[in-house]
Amino acid sequence: MNNTVSTIPYEIQDTRFDDMIVGTVLNIAVTVLVRILQRVSPFHINTRNIHTYDKKPIVLISFKCIRTMFFIVLLSNSILIAANFKPIGIALYVVYWAPVTAWWHLFYDKQFKMAMVYGIMSAKCGIFIAVTTQSLHLWFVAIAWSIYISYLAAWYQFCNPDFGESEV
User: Fold this and answer.
1) Mind listing the pLDDT tens digit for each residue in 117-162?
2) d(CA 127, CA 114)
3) In this structure, is residue 89 part of a structural domain?
4) Which domain range does residue 126 map to?
5) Maximum alpha-carbon separation in the chain
6) Which of 55, 91, 153, 157 has the highest CB neighbour count under 10 A?
7) pTM here?
């Protein structure tokens, strides 16, 4: 008889690997769909506009690293989909994820105010889902990502010395 206690949260233990794969595919499909609806390339993010600014936020890593982190968040969020693999859970997740994906185009197109709104909207949605499903520990990374992208957009909107050049 094995008396060891698992340190893996119950929601993750109870998920099927198949649901995680379907969740990853769904996540990528929603990401591609949102980018296509924005009429931008789903697989290429043009960072040229943002590099025109000399001053950068205090908490900023390279934009290449931010893209890598986004991909990691995208993959880790399959656990969120798999943990609540019901139509309502998937629908709520899409409501969270669509603004996160749409943020990229707004941010790199210097629409910082709207990018900030999208980041805040996704953070609020993530918090709502985490609280209602009692799974804040699973949603922590997703919520932290939304707060970080909100911070980046807010910094470029309000703290950037080149503010006059941004599109409002």
Assistant:
1) 999 999 999 999 999 888 888 888 899 999 999 998 998 888 876 6
2) 20
3) yes
4) 12-40+58-162
5) 69
6) 153
7) 0.76
